[in-house]
Amino acid sequence: IQQPDIIAVFDQAIYAKLLDVQWKHKEEFCSIVPRMGAFQRWFLSAHKKAEMTNACRSMAGTVSAAASSVHPDATYSRVCRDDATVEGLVELLQTWQSPFAASSELVNISSGVVATEKVTADTSSAL
Questions:
Q1: Highest-confidence segment of 9-13, 30-34, 68-72, 108-112
Q2: What span, in angstroms and rounded, lies between the C-alpha atoms of 34 and 25?
Q3: Which helix (H) or strand (E) holds 53?
Q4: Would you say the C-alpha torsion 11, 15, 18, 20 has a positive or negative sign?
Q5: Mean pLDDT, residues 92-98
């Protein structure tokens, strides 16, 4: 192309892959300057798109303006249910006992064979 630098505009996924390739092959791709055009434009205008979507929903009467601003996972009933679930899991984990009996013997889990004293001593010294 006979240009010292090439400027290429990509979306976020291709941009990340290009940076990865560029990092691995620095000599071959040193003249490429990547830019994230579409992603930056989307990010800078996302709030306006959300406003237009909410206005269209309100005009169509599909969702009230107040209800559309609350995510279903953020409702009071959902938060209370999630808190109760977490409390139940914490209680279960605090009272849960190990299914294995406490023992100083070295036992093969699959066969149940107990190791000799020499093997146990050798293994203990390795730790």
A1: 108-112
A2: 15
A3: helix 37-60
A4: negative
A5: 79
What whole-number distance in Å separates Cα of residue 69 and Cα of residue 35? 33
SS3 8: strand
- The pair phi, psi for residue 89, each rounded to 5°, is -65, -40
Q: Which amino acid is at 15?
A: Y
CA–CA dist 15, 19 (Å, integer): 6
**How far apart, in whole angstroms, are the C-alpha atoms of residue 53 and residue 45?**
13
With 0.70 as the threshold, say if the pTM is over it.
no
Question: Would you put residue 20 in left (φ > 0), alpha (ψ -120 to 50) or beta?
Answer: alpha
The answer to whether 21 touches 29, Cβ cutoff 8 Å, is yes
- State which amino acid sits at residue 1: I
